[in-house]
Amino acid sequence: MPELPEVEVCRRGLQPEVTGELILGAVVRSPRLRLPLPATLGDTLAGQRVVAVRRRGKYLLLDCRGGIEDGCLIIHLGMSGSLRFVANDKTPEKHDHVDILFARQTLRLSDPRRFGVVLWHALGEAPHPLLAVLGIEPLAEEFTGDWLFAATRGRAAPIKPVLMDSHLVVGIGNIYAAESLFRAGIWPLRAASRISRERYRRLAPAIRQTLADAIAAGGSSIRNYVHSDGGAGCFQVDCAVYGRAGEPCRRCGGVIRQVRQGGRSTFYCPSCQH
Q1: β-strands 106-110, 257-261: how paired?
Q2: What is the average per-residue pLDDT within 20-34?
């Protein structure tokens, strides 16, 4: 699933291409993805000008003005989605479900597993329910070790799934949780409430740096995630623990272990993390 770094890389790729551009319309080829696609999306988007491209958690937000109503196009890439620019006359393929039409090019959403979201949200309405429940942004100034310590009091669950709870913190997926915990030296099975304030003060910057490094590397292309220009991310190439079960730890030489947590694989070094 594209996580915060992949979505932020996508946002940065979209921003210079579509900001200020006029949307000519949209083509919807499927009745629904994770949620039904708006039947009137083409009419709503026609004549809109994109004024900003934002991100909230793993959602892309295209702020639009000048059409039949001002608002925001909300896009989530789901488990396997990607946005890419194609020529306006390029024939769609099997999993190409939505096109956003511009004069120079088309922004095409491909989503093989159909877990993505494309919604219109009118300006002035209450925050969309999908966005209203989201937790803090880990790249925000307010995200500190002290904030994490306070937010995890009474949380008996292991720290790794707690970090992946989007109601608490958005966008920290499996790979980034594992790498952040390794950098902070914290065992991923340790109860969140049993981690000291000082250790959280190491964890918060480790999370921020891990995400920043991933964004700089273009994200992680584990399966079929690609950038808006068709390129791939490479953060996964230099992972310290993720995907390296049975291999030597690059810090201490011990063996990286793998366990299952909540149906997801967790990787850690038993010598470096406690």
Answers
A1: unpaired
A2: 95
Q: Which residues are catalytic?
A: 2-3, 58, 264
Quickly tell me which residue has 């992946």 as its tokens.
Answer: 164
Residue 140 domain-assigned (yes or no): no
Partner residues linked to 122 by β-bridges = 71
Residues 128 and 8 in one domain: yes
State which amino acid sits at residue 31.
P
Residues 149 and 254 in one domain: yes
Closest CA to 148 of 156, 138, 157: 138
Per the structure, the complete domain to which residue 184 belongs is given by 145-268
Reply yes or no on whether the pLDDT at 204 is more than 60.
Answer: yes
pTM summary value: 0.90
Q: Tell me how far CA of residue 212 lies from CA of 12, 35, 218, in angstroms.
A: 13, 31, 10
DSSP secondary structure letter of residue 32? B
**Reduced to 3 states, what is the DSSP secondary structure of residue 161?**
helix
Q: Do 167 and 49 share a structural domain?
A: no
Contact 189, 157 (CB under 8 A): no
Q: Is residue 139 part of a domain?
A: no
User: How many alpha carbons fall within 13 Å on the CB side of residue 118?
Assistant: 30
Asked if residue 155 belongs to a domain, the reply is: yes
Asked if the structure places residue 274 within a domain, the reply is: no
